[in-house]
Each structure stands twice: as structure tokens, then as C-alpha cells.
């Protein structure tokens, strides 16, 4: 039995069928294909200063998966998303969305996009904003009326849909932005910081919505700095550091690619002679830290139960008391920090933060003009 959409009843399920993409016409190509993608910005009076924002990026996003893009500030995430959307063009390589060239009109019509800081005209209500974005996406008027009400219920704006958006909090504007991204029933959703500004309840609702969209066969590509949220919803992630791809895959696959330390660890709270505790930590290659109550906190890698048993046996032989034992796994945040640290250790040259880069020399300006002409 198919899962019901989050929210009340099956309203959205019926709504999606009104404007649904025919599966029989979909190819087996990846939702996003990126090959050797590069982007170089130029600035200055004679455009002599050059900044490489992307260095030969290559990865693909499978249809129907939730894929996360991670990276510190200035990593090139915004540049990559702009290229996928056709806002700027790459300096080299290729990007395709749903089998179509990135930025093409046919690709854009099949994509829903939630920018990080979506600004709505202050005079609009949620309903009138939905009508505006629906018309821009060529959604029939009767479908806009039906879907707008159901989508606003889905994102938790029922009862506030007739208020002017200037009265909305950032979290409410974020919910409205997600509703407009879904209005034309896109095959691929590109979400830039979808939970930014939301409280814990709102974040949980967005997670449920993303899981449900995946069940409906949608592809979700999201960029977020909240790594715990990414770990909860994403099937795979890509880590971008200073324009270079450091790894792509599941957390376990990233472990192998990054040659990170063991993903499985054990934490013990111990008491005993400090000398014996130091010797145990040294033998096991563990870290040892004193606790305020006089005990000690020990962290050690332990892949198997046999490793844990050896640790416990060694502690008991030394007369050390074990007050607590917890098994933990390396988090996505720790993997991410490991990727960033490895990049710095490799001595890769740094690039300026994206917000400090110019819009790009003439190439991007010409492309912007071409895009306006195409839309006209």
C-alpha cells in the first residue's frame, strides 16, 4: 500500500496526479550528471585576476534518491547550483539534468527550486504568491487553485494563507518557498538550505515531506549546513572543499574514500589508578580525559565485539572499574571535518569565499542576456 503524504488525508496525493509526469517517457539516465565541470571567475579592470571556483567536478545523482551537497563557505556550492539552474555557465566540462543540458528551457520546466533567501514581493499573500509562481511555470489556472491550497496545508500555512508575506517569519517564508517549488510537480527538486529558519518541529515536518517525495519517485538535491539534517534524510552526499570534490557516496563509502579513522568507536567511563589508566590508553591507542567527578573518559576505536571484549579484559586485569560503556559511530559531521582537514593537510591553495567573487567577466553577462532572450 502506498504511503500517504505527510499532513492531513491524501489531498496532495490526488493533487500530484493532476499534473503528473508520465513515467513511460522517462529515460534511465541519472537525474543529474556532472562531468569535468569547471568554473573560473575573472575580475578587476582588465579581468586579469582569476579565481577557480570549481575544479573538474564529476558525480551523478540517481533518479529517485535524496542527495546532499556539503561544503564549507567558499567551497563552490552556490556556483555549482547556479550552473545546474542555468544562471551562470561553466568554464569547462558538462552538466545535464534529467537528460537535458543544464540551463535549457526543457530542463528548467522539470525542476523545482528553493533558493536559500527567497524574497517574495511584500504585497503578496501566500495564495497570490502561489498564483504568481504557478503562472510563471505555465501551470493551468484551475490546477493552481487546487494545488495551492493543498500545498499550503502540507507545509503548515493553513490559516495564514491570506496574510501578507511581509508579516511572515523567516521560517514561514521558507515553508512558502517550498510550496512554490512543488507547485508545478517537478521531477527534480533543488533545495538550498530547506530547513533554514525552521524550529525543530518545522525541520521534522520538512524531513517527513522529503521522505514522502522520495517515495513518490522524486529526486531531491539539497544543500544544507545542518549536517545532522543531511544525515537523517540523504541517501548519498558529495563533499566539496574549495572547489574540489573530496568524496561522494554513503557515509560508509566516504570512510573508504577519505581513508578516515574507524567509524565504530567505544566510549568508557572508568575509575582506577591514573598510572594504570594511562598505560591502558597507550596500549589501546585511545584518548583519555579526566572527568569532574574524578573518573576518566576513554575513547577508542573498536570495529568488532572482539575488540570490545579485549578492551574490557585489559581494564579488569589492571584493576580498573568500568562505570559506563557506549558504542558510537563516526557522524557525518566528523567525516565532513575529516575531509576538510585532509584538504588543508594536502596543501591545496585556498580560493576566496564565493560572496567575494565578482559575477564573472563578460561571459556570464552575455549568458545572462541570452537567458533573458530565451525566456522572452
Question: What overall geometry do the principal axes of the alpha carbons give?
Answer: globular
Please provide the count of β strands: 14
Task: Supply the helix-strand structural class.
Answer: alpha/beta
Number of discrete helical segments? 13
N-to-C series of helices and strands: HEEEHEEHEHHHEHEHEEHEHEEHEHH
Instruction: Please indicate the percent range of residues in DSSP E strands (runs of 2 or more).
Output: 15-25%
Average of per-residue pLDDT values = 82
Helix content: 25-40%
C-alpha-based Rg, rounded: 25 Å
User: Largest beta sheet, briefly?
Assistant: 6 strands, mixed
* Low-confidence blocks of residues: 8-27, 349-376
Distance between the termini: 45 Å
Order of neighbouring strands in the sheet with most strands:
6-7-8-3-9-10
Structure description:
With 376 residues, this protein is α/β, with parallel strands linked by helices. The chain contains 13 helices and 14 strands. It has helices at residues 11-18, 77-85, 105-108, 126-136, 141-154, 170-182, 200-215, 227-233, 251-258, 274-284, 305-317, 332-345, 362-375, and strands at residues 32-43, 49-61, 66-70, 92-97, 100-101, 111-114, 188-192, 219-223, 236-241, 244-249, 264-271, 287-290, 296-301, 321-329. The strands form three sheets. It has a six-stranded mixed β-sheet. Helix 4 (126-136) packs across helix 5 (141-154). The longest helix has 16 residues, at 200-215. It starts with 10 loop residues before the first helix and ends with a helix. Mean pLDDT is 82; it is low at 8-27 and 349-376.
